[in-house]
Amino acid sequence: MDAWEAVLAEAGDLVAATHTLPARSGREGTWPDLHPRLAAGFSELGLSHPWKHQEEAFNSITSRRHTVIATGTGSGKSLAAWAPLLNRLATARKATSLAEIGASPTVLYLAPTKALAADQHASLARIISACELDLVAGAVDGDATAEERRAARARADVIISNPDFLHFRMLAQHRQWTRLFKGLSAIVIDEFHSYRGMTAAHVALVVRRALRVAAHYGASPTLVFLSATAKDPAGAAATFLNIDAAEISLIDQDASRASGARVAIVCPMPETSTIRQAAGVAATLIDRGAATLVFSRSRAGTEAVAEEIRQVLEERHSPHCQAVESYRGGYLPEERRELERELRAGRLRGLASTNALELGIDISGLDAVVCAGWPGTHASFRQQLGRAGRAARPGIGILLTRDDPLDQHYAEHADTIFDEPLEAQVFNPHNPYILQGHLLAAAAELPLTELDAPLFGLDGTELFSEIAAGGLLIERGGAWRWNVALGIEPHSLIDLRSASGEIAIVEQGTGQVIGTVNSERADSTVHPGAIYVHRGRLFSIAELGETTAIATPAEGRVRTRALSSTAVEIMTIEAERSLVRGTLGYGQVTVASQVTGYDLLTDTGQFLAHEPLDMPMRELNTAGCWWTVPLAACSAAGLTPDILPGALHGLEHCAIGLLPLFATCDRWDIGGLSTAEHPQTGDPTIIVHDAIHGGSGCAEQGFLRIESWLQAAFERLSRCPCDTGCPACVQSPKCGNRNEPLSKTGALILAALMCDELGVSPRATAGGPEDG
Q: Which residue from 392, 399, 402, 404 is spatially nearest to 414, judged by alpha carbons?
């Protein structure tokens, strides 16, 4: 019995569906007008015949059009970008005029992770060497030495980096990088689909600032976006650059050869956690000789999956029980590099990872991928499946659906998983909480003028003057400069990855940094008493400060769950609809939240004790949508005062769990509140809000697609087989109130009532929300 058959046999009736991704023979094209050395090198590397989409990308980039290459995993997107750009650089070496020599072209490549940048650097170096090109590729990031940075500034034709280093170093010190910006011919944005929400907004503004600085030095670079297959990637790129989509060429017809894959969608195993179920599936695959990668949604889940796989393999007396590791963000750079080497060398037979290994790192040769829960988007799911089966034999993909509204939607509508992605890539570069910081950084790089306003999505200079009135900018002669008298560096005020930086987790006694955590989640994840897991080791957080959390080794198999209280105030109404009896609104809201304590749990979720905490109140100014139904209408539908709070709470949870069907987000990117009488609306109210300052656009998508959204919620509630509510319908893993109170029956009645208010029919047997 091979690995695929063994997994299906063990899953039995839990297999909801299987799907075969067919092999594809591929359609070849030709390289147009290659430099002789490039042609010879490509022949040596076996790249003489490109795929058709690579040829199309070559022509588009060579003609200096902004280009989006949105094809599948393993389709050669990187080569599609490097071929025309290396050709451009190699041809420029023939230049003889002083003007041409003085502005030798350069290329800037940006990766979302250091691991991907390092991988691309090694790949590009092999191509340059094989082609015997007189070109230098240099990799620089926050870990680079001063000498490596000096060498890149002085000699590199291609600089490989990330948006953070571009922001903090290259732009802040652009006069030291004059050679790069003066010759900047192209900027490559890799894994573009992975940018969303706040991070995408930040990176878009960093890239616009880079274009501004390049223009100052006389350059006008071509933008090349490398993306997984996604909904409207050209439109997302146009939003990213604040230009018309007609200015962008889209290459999205994948012509590469594919080995195909066999995919199984497996339902949750009764009374077994997804982590334990994933570990069992992975152990079976590993025992059958399949090198296996397990994707988990969280850092804690990744650690737990790796530990469980080792335990299952030990129970089965497998020789591979010590060949399983975990890989995630928060690890130190040297730890990640070591794991990548072990994986490529084949010494690891199993690896549990967050989406850090979803990206384009070259880890071919894997046989199977296990997704411990729906990864959030169709793009991510396809990228994760693409990690296996790149050789001649087809890969194996196993999606283990969790007890979660979104996962169960896909378990019931497995046929929709391989349709075109429904999600919109949602981000807002003009979010005022994000934009202002970038305007300050831009003013420090070069004085702002009226000509810069359109680049930042502004109609005029009013915002520049408002900031100057606050003393951060100085206006003189129609130009706005950073106020250097403040004695701070404006670039340091911006964190591209979060709104407020990271907390370093330090082991007490040794002083070793064992990990990091987003400071916005610190109160709920590394509060005093919290259990933190790092590579299988348990730590108890003794103290949480402004920049560090002190951890001490812990024993046993316990976990913690933070509890919190929340209030939401509607600040402005930007859009509103009157329903039959209620209202639907969208606007700006202020969320006040406070971690009030934590529960101590066994690793199986059994309650042990509760500990109160005195944590600070946090405020979040963001965007939200809300809907209300008058109390009289609720009462007439049978939602009496004892049921109504649980009904509202249950529908809130279900709706939040399903919003990712309509926006590129997951439930951790959004929050909510439900109340039987909101102090502002005076009625039973549900509010769903973005979880970042200024908003990410997810709540707005909910407002715009409310009919399909609530129809999907009614369907999930009506089809869930549980009696009183479960994680597949109304319970939420992130609820700060222990999922109390909840009423599944009440939530179903309320969802039907809301559908009636919206003038749409509830669907108990529909095939999923339409793409509207």
A: 399
Give the closest residue to 350 by CA, choosing from 281, 271, 293.
293
Q: Which residues pair with 533 in a beta bridge?
A: 538
d(C-alpha 284, C-alpha 400), whole Å = 14
Q: What angle do CA 541, 545, 546 make, to 5 degrees?
A: 140
8 Å CB contact between 45 and 82: no
Residues 6+ apart with CB under 8 A from 717: 650, 651, 654, 729, 730, 744, 747, 748, 751
Q: Which of 100, 66, 335 has its CA nearest to residue 218? A: 100
CA distance 762 to 752: 6
Evaluated on CA atoms 108, 355, 374, 72, the torsion sign reads positive
Question: CA–CA separation, 764 vs 583, rounded Å?
Answer: 24
What H or E segment, with its residue span, contains residue 153? helix 146-155
Helix axes 706-719, 644-658, angle to 10 degrees: 110
Residue 60: φ, ψ to 5°:
-65, -50
DSSP 377: S
Distance between start and end Cα atoms, the chain = 45
pLDDT at 300 (0 to 100): 76
- Residues 340/363, Cβ–Cβ less than 8 Å: yes
Neighbour count for residue 270 (Cβ, 10 Å): 6
Q: List, for residues 188-204, the tens digit of each pLDDT value.
A: 999 998 888 788 999 99
pLDDT of the residue at 772: 31
d(CA 346, CA 336): 16
| 168: DSSP letter | I
419: nearest Cα among 359, 379, 386: 379
Strand partners, 513: 506
CA gap 531, 527 in Å, rounded: 9
**Average pLDDT of the residues in 303-328:** 89
Q: What is the band of 767 on the pLDDT scale with cuts at 50, 70, 90?
A: very low
Alpha-carbon gap, residue 403 to 401, rounded angstroms: 7
Give the torsion sign (CA, 228, 22, 289, 417): positive
If one counts every other C-beta atom within 10 angstroms of the C-beta of residue 640, the result is 11
Estimate the crossing angle of helix 77-92 against helix 114-130, to 10 degrees: 50
| Nearest residue to 350 via CA among 328, 335, 367 | 367
Percent of residues, the chain, with pLDDT higher than 70: 94
- How many Cβ atoms sit within 10 Å of the Cβ of residue 646? 24
Segment holding 183, helix H or strand E: none
Total Cβ atoms within 10 A of residue 314? 12
Both structure tokens of 658: 């399903």
Model confidence over 479-524: pLDDT tens digits?
999 999 998 899 988 877 654 567 889 998 888 888 788 777 888 8
Around 576, how many Cα atoms within 13 Å sit in the side-chain half-sphere? Answer: 10
- Asked if 223 contacts 455 with a C-beta cutoff of 8 angstroms, the reply is no
DSSP secondary structure letters along 259-291:
--EEEEEEPPPTT--HHHHHHHHHHHHHHTT--
Cβ count within 10 A of residue 446: 18
Total-model pTM:
0.78
Q: Please give the pLDDT value at position 385.
A: 86
pLDDT digits (tens, 9 = 90+) for 208-248: 999 999 999 999 999 999 998 777 899 999 999 999 999 99
Phi/psi of residue 92, nearest 5 degrees: -65, -20
Mean pLDDT, residues 444-460: 96
Instruction: Give the DSSP per-residue string, 112-138.
Output: SSHHHHHHHHHHHHHHHHHTT-S--EE
What is residue 330's predicted lDDT score, i.e. its pLDDT? 64
Average pLDDT of the chain, as a whole number: 88
Three-state secondary-structure class, residue 632 = helix
pLDDT value at residue 769: 35
pLDDT-based confidence at residue 97 (cuts at 50, 70, 90)? low
Residue type, 508: Q
